[in-house]
Task: structure prediction
Amino acid sequence: MSNSNAVVPNDLNAFWMPFTANRQFKKSPRMFVAAKDMHYTTSDGRQVLDGTAGLWCVNAGHARPKIVEAIANQAAELDYAPAFQMGHPKAFELANRIVDIAPKGLGHVLFTNSGSESVETALKVALAYHRVKGDGARSRLIGRERGYHGVNFGGISVGGIVTNRKMFGSLLTGVDHMPHTHNLKQNAFSKGLPAHGADLADELERIVTLHDASTIAAVIVEPVAGSTGVLIPPPGYLQRLRDITRKHGILLIFDEVITGFGRLGTPFGADYFGVTPDIMVTAKGLTNGVIPMGAVLVSAEIHDAFMGGPEHVIEFFHGYTYSGNPIASAAGLATLETYKDEDLLTRGAELAPYFEAALHSLKGLPHVIDIRNIGLVGAIELEPIAGQPTKRAFAAFLKAFEAGVLIRTTGDIIALSPPLIVEKSHIDQIVGTLGDILKTLE
Ligand SMILES: Cc1ncc(COP(=O)(O)O)c(C=O)c1O
Result:
């Protein structure tokens, strides 16, 4: 009688992979066994150029010496310290270093272990803030269509991706959504910010009128929506959201899990757009993707609102066993040092014009219906095969991998976000490979 738990070494069956076509993968696995700087090594010994910085997180490139060393040393020195009612110096040091590079006014940091946890933390801070101020009727959360805020219940509730929502019941109540800003008709092949659509921010006024401002706690948006295919806001759009939220006493949350740590050529998206939110959600690039960690930055006004009452009482009933974990903190500190040593938080700005010109050279190739870019993020949108959405882009992904370049696809959109150490020759290779592949796609 076979035991359904029995596995043979290297059996692929037990691991139910995340956001993966499991059956397709297990028939034809794609495995990385090593990585250095801009390249992975596959299990069959090939070099694959990282066109996506892992999952938008390995901003300094792979296996960077300072980070590797910091993790090893920290594991030997202090592997773990309880996160509640105890501390260790590196978590405080990292919080300070993050505040140093953050937009002015965001002076306090809560640590998490992922972007999804950072989102939940931010939403809970927003709700609790209004409550401690005696304004607990403000319980509604406003997200945006095509927004991605991770996979936990708060995140999928404010998020706007139907496949991530439809299986999971009624989600959080009291959530509404603004429209997304993606507009192929008017904005296709825009370089940088697309010209049309700033007025979509006024949809927030409509939502405020519908529910009344006194019921709304916060609005959450990604400055540039990454996971649904690099949706870039029109000029003035985010400023308008800031103006409307401020006018109505609503907190503005920027989910900078992708746009944080240099992706747009500035330390944060808030810097790129000159708009400072009340709460900023980060993860990914904070530790160069090496150790799971996220950070939520909040304004002094929010933090200070919690600091009343008897001093022996916990001010905010929230946190994780691994909040500010010593090894993650060491990785974060070494990552921020690496960014500083190599000016990586602004390097994207220098390379952006080259990246833009290279990407837009693909205009006119078969199936390409849009190309867009900002900083070191780009997207190539393909016409879907009729009745078979995602199939064409997935074929491009598989062909690119075979040809030695890792790209990412979402729907029928190819997204590119190379590590910030990328050289022009790498950009040429990515775009050259894509150009060849696009000509061969069904
Ligand atoms: C904007 C945004 N928020 C949240 C998340 C979730 O992060 P994680 O996968 O670390 O939970 C992501 C991940 O891609 C993201 O892009």
About this structure: The two ends are 46 Å apart (CA to CA). The longest strand covers residues 106-112. Residues 114-116, 119, 148-150, 222, 226-227, 255, 257-258, 283 surround pyridoxal-5'-phosphate (CB under 6 Å). The mean pLDDT is 97.
